[in-house]
Design a protein that fits this description.
137 residues, 1 helix
Length: 137
């Protein structure tokens, strides 16, 4: 693609066939070419709106899907870093973290964990608790 086209904005309406166009809505797209071959794409699929950033290879990096239930954020990145001056809060029904290597939680203050239900700790290796005093019940 020529360098001049990188800043161009392209509006296209795509449909794979005439029959499909008659039975389903066409996919409206707007595409902005960014530096390093990335693209920013705005699209509509049915009643959902999409905002996508893709790498030069076409691989998805960021997607925001606007649905009737609310927005859905999807990212595929090398690293995600968040820095805040104050609090970082997450409220959700289920919170799941999966790391292929280490998981580290470190604080300069107290670490508190509270559960309304049972707390389970499973490890195929030793479990160590170190502290000045360890209180059990």
């Amino acid at each position: 693609m020529p360098q001049d086209d990188k800043e161009s904005l392209e509006l296209t309406t795509q449909a794979s066939s005439t029959e499909e166009t008659e039975t389903t809505e066409a996919r409206d797209e707007r595409k902005l070419y960014l530096d390093q071959g990335r693209t920013l794409q705005l699209a509509r699929e049915g009643n959902q709106q999409l905002v996508e950033i893709r790498a030069a290879s076409g691989q998805l990096e960021v997607r925001i899907k606007l649905t009737d239930e609310g927005p859905i954020l999807q990212m595929e990145a090398v690293k995600v870093a968040v820095t805040t001056e104050e609090a970082f809060e997450i409220k959700c029904k289920t919170f799941s973290v999966e790391a292929s290597q280490d998981t580290i939680i470190q604080t300069g203050g107290e670490l508190k964990m509270k559960a309304e239900g049972e707390i389970t700790l499973d490890s195929p290796e030793d479990v160590r608790l170190r502290g000045k005093i360890i209180w059990l019940n």
